[in-house]
Structures are given as structure tokens and as C-alpha cells.
Amino acid sequence: MSNNSIIEEQLRELYTKIVWTHKIQEKAADVNLSNHRVFKVLQVILSAATTGTIVVSVFGDSRPGVILGAVFSAVLFGIEAYTKDNDLNQKANQHAKTAHSLWSIREDYLTLLVDMRSTELTYEQTADRREQLKTRLDDILSTAPRTGPKAYKKAAEALNVKKDHTFQVDEIDKFLPGPLRKE
After folding, report:
1. Is residue 49, in this structure, part of any structural domain at all?
2. For residue range 85-117, what is the model confidence (pLDDT) as tens digits?
3. Residue 1 lies in a domain
4. Which of 25, 83, 85, 178 lies most in the core, judged by the most C-beta atoms within 10 Å?
5. pTM listed for this prediction
6. Is 176 a domain residue?
7. pLDDT digits (tens, 9 = 90+) for 42-64
8. Residue 180 belongs to a domain
9. Residue range of the domain that includes 138
């Protein structure tokens, strides 16, 4: 096996890992944004319920209203305390930013693989570009927020079942000008 074959195999593996990491970060952003929205809706509902029970207590039978208001208020307090230390919207933005950076570097790895096949890159040229990409990737991953199993599961479904980022020839041709189509 030649040096270029060995480095190409490594680049293919790295490319695949980046595809996965990118998709996991995207899905982590989706999960955090969805959770953020759920908590915001719960906060509005619980605030309204707490206020409603207080109003009922003032103008009617106070004991059940006070108890219910206290329960709603306690749950609302718990949600407020959790979201104070866990800004899910900010986490979603961090995951989305990381995913965007990973998308860029993923495309650069793909370009390097294409260049290896379509031009006469030497081993040294390829290794140099690989090291530059590795440095950039290390910088991105050093600040990437952690993900969880839910994001991984959603990424696996997107990549393996829904085939995100894979296209049939006719899908590609649909968006290309005539001379670039494979028809």
C-alpha cells in the first residue's frame, strides 16, 4: 500500500468522524432549542395558573386556591432555578456555531480527498494540508459543547435512516446547470 493510499484512508475516516460530529452538534442544538421552548411554555402556563389560583383565593374559597397556588408556584420556582443555571437557548446557539464550524472543515476534508484523486498532490503536500486541517479541527473541538445520547440517537437516525447529506444523481442534477448534469 502506497503512502498516498494510507493517508487517503486516514482522511476518509477523519471525514466520516467529522460528518458524525457535525450532525450530532446540529441535533444537540435542536434538542436544546426544543427543551428551551418547552420550558418557556411551561413557565407561562404555570405563571398564569399561579396568578389564577391567587385571584380565586382572594374572591372565593381560599384554602384550595392557596394550596394549588403554592404547588404551581413551587413548580415554577423549580423550573426558574433550573433554567437560570442552564440557559438552553445559549447552549443551542453554541452547538449550532460548532456545527457550522465543523461543516466548513468537513467540506475542506472532502476537497482534500477530491484533490488527492484529481491532481498529482505529493504525499508531503497532502500531509501538510492534513496537519493544517487537524490544527483547525482541534481548535473547534477544544471549545465544542458536550453532547448527550439523545443528540447522538437523533444524528444516527438522520444519517443512517433519513440519509441526511446523501443525494441521488437525479437530485444533484436538478440543481446543476445543464453542462454539469450527468443525464
Report:
1. yes
2. 889 999 999 999 999 999 999 999 999 999 998
3. no
4. 25
5. 0.83
6. no
7. 999 999 988 888 877 777 767 77
8. no
9. 11-156
